[in-house]
User: Fold UvrABC system protein C from Paenibacillus urinalis.
Amino acid sequence: MESHLGHIQEQEKALEQIRHKLALLPDLPGCYLMKNDQGTIIYVGKAKVLKNRVRSYFTGSHNGKTQRLVADIRDFEYIVTGSNKEALLLELNLIKKHQPRYNVLLKDDKTFPYLKITNERHPKLEVTRRVLKDKAKYFGPYPNSYAAHQTKKLLDRMYPLRKCGVMPKEVCLYYHMGQCLAPCVKEIGKETYEGISTEIASFLSGGHEEIKKDLQKKMEEAAEDLYFERAKELRDQIIAIDALMEKQKITTADTKDRDVFGFAIDKGWMSVQILYIRQGKMIERHSTSFPFYGDAYADFISFVTQYYSDNPALPKEILLPLLPEEESKLQQAQGADEAHEQAQSYKLEENEQEEETVPIPDEAASADQETSGIDDPVSAAGLLQEWLDIKVLIPKRGLKRQMVSMATENAKVSLDEKFRLIERTEERTSKAAQRLGDALGLSSLSRIEAFDNSNIQGANPVSAMVVFIDGKAEKKEYRKYKIRSVKGPDDYETMREVIRRRYERVLKENLTQPDLIIVDGGRGQISSALDVLHNELGLYIPVCGLVKDAKHKTSQLMIGDTFEVIQLPRDSQEFYLLQRIQEEVHRFAITFHREQRGKSMVVSRLDSIPGIGEKRRKLLLKHFGSLRKIKEASVEDFRPLSIGDKLAQTIIDSLQDEEP
Assistant:
């Protein structure tokens, strides 16, 4: 009770400090960093007007996700920038550096594969997930590794670049197949490689039709000269190009390269779709979904910014959506049937509606506009356009509008599918719990409490409990136990202590009793648990044990006083549920044991130093955070703790002497 009261007082004190700082916020652009009670940065945002944006978190109502963020804020900092563009780039760098838990975090450039023509004397084509400043040519990104490797496989057949990682001493099979120029034994001029690289670049930039025409011409010439094998190879290459491109859905009148974005939000989740338009054709798409906690459009723009920060292959144009509510209005105006057709496929003809886009102001013009500080589409597009130095549009009518509608509609479909899959998984999980109850002869099986013990030769013995309700883990009800009464490695006595402590508390505080208790082990563990429940506490809760095989995997289910083994099909949902429970309680117990073992090692090492008692040990660990940081500290670093130079040197020497 006192602890809870102290927490409330600490929270009120932090909010009072925040109110004082809010009054001092400037009317300037910049970035803000929200911190929790540990001083950890949990959210980074940008604003045109810091005062308006930061204040908005602490006034008015918010949705559930944002409320969770605000509830964790105990302090904030801000950094003023000279322009909105600087704020955009600073936000990007701060997110990359601090990886705040409530920000949208795009995985690094390893997420997306690229095709790369290496910058070597004898270049080669390869798939890579690392973008380096090595003067190589990069093409992509591709949405998955399969798409990148399929494209490379085709290009390897068509263009004779080097295939070997290490140059061999004699020609390889690729040379005899006509897929390599054999630079290992021949002198190949730079101009030859440049010509091949240019053709590959043209192909990867969308110039498939020109390549096909050239191959068609060569095939006909080979056939006329009676080189039928060569003609067949060229024909196969044309077929391969057609097969690679057959999934393209969009064709536009122009041949401009574009990235088209759409996004949808629901139940605290965001889905983003990117359509890659190259040479007027949609060659690929990328789909991703993630939870978001801030303003929806601000988090969407944060995703886009992170996406392009490591992307060396920029398109000529980027198309962005409006705010979700405005997107919905436009789509309703276009008609539900039309929107559905757009989500399936498009053939956009040359003489469609006249294009109309939202005008994008320049930085100087937009800086003077009065704004709430929340990212609006127009200013966000303007910042991206200035930063990337390419055209960024928000279409309202015409072909480009249809492309954005298609991306947005697909984002909605993707999010709907995600929730349907979650619902199906929950339904299967709930049924698995019911079937397990039927197999055990229980009229109801909703709440399961499972226990596992962990120790090494009896040292630092701990136990852990996990709770599953209707087949789903309920992590807020997990409990950890330090074993108090047992000396040495005794699993049975450990089980007795933990069962006693858990269910004495259940009775004392009138907590919900489980429908089933699961212990990790067989007869001995079951008997220990039942003895405490029946003879000490007067509780008659069913107990079963999970017996493992030689590979430490769930093998059998043993229940009750009779120790009857219940045979469950290995491929059944109920057996899978038991496996999940056993793996989860084992993970939870062993993680807790490692924590305790690490703490005891730190305590024993510090306690062995003369002049260090419990009070100073806690002070040192609180100030430095870890034993490693204490060891790396200088004598001067100890002075704020009122530790003299002589004792500080003793601490440093003692810890360093223990190094192996």
Summary: The radius of gyration is 32 Å. The chain has five domains: 2-103, 110-245, 258-417, 441-597, 608-657.
